[in-house]
Design brief:
7-stranded mixed β-sheet; two-stranded antiparallel sheet; 9 strands
């Protein structure tokens, strides 16, 4: 397989957590992003973290940190755009900073199904997980045009591409993300 870069999306505002930076919230004594990085690092050749606040704290994890190029916290697509513009490899996998249990075989399974598609996205049951995707870096100009036109919805952008959904029904729990402090406490 060709080289794969990892993009950790940590650029959100954490609104459902009361405005805290989700990736830096502690889970078992370590920031959530530390768990994400530990699971992702063995699967990729390098990692870029997309963050729009606390840049120094994210940089301390030893990976390049890039901020959205589109202003106004435009959501995961803005993070993907910033990440794709920064990665070194033709393929990039995206994961959110608040999913500390992500599958150890995420990249392998998405890559297996990617084929000639623009991207492969994980799903469990009927539920796609659009922020868990393996993407060809070449879609960056298409994404740039979509964002420039005011587009923000990840599903609508995916609908314009060749997408394959990859079932992870055997690892449904791996995609559990932590959006609230209550969920963090339960985890």
């Amino acid at each position: 397989m060709h080289g794969v870069s990892g993009i950790v999306l940590a650029g959100g505002l954490g609104r459902r957590m009361g405005g805290v930076d989700k990736g830096l919230q502690l889970l078992h004594g370590r920031p959530m992003i530390a768990h994400v990085l530990a699971r992702l690092a063995p699967q990729v050749d390098d990692i870029v973290i997309n963050a729009n606040q606390n840049l120094e704290r994210y940089a301390a994890f030893g990976h390049r940190v890039v901020s959205d190029r589109v202003s106004g916290f435009a959501g995961p697509l803005a993070g993907l755009h910033a990440g794709l513009a920064a990665v070194a490899h033709p393929l990039a996998v995206t994961v959110p900073c608040d999913s500390p249990f992500l599958p150890a075989d995420l990249v392998a399974r998405l890559a297996e199904q990617l084929g000639a598609n623009d991207l492969a996205v994980a799903k469990t049951g009927d539920q796609p997980h659009p922020v868990f995707a393996l993407v060809h870096r070449s879609v960056v100009s298409n994404l740039e045009n979509y964002l420039a036109g005011g587009g923000r919805k990840i599903d609508a952008w995916y609908a314009s591409l060749q997408v394959v959904e990859v079932a992870f029904d055997d690892e449904a729990d791996a995609f559990r993300n932590i959006n609230t402090l209550e969920e963090l406490g339960r985890a």
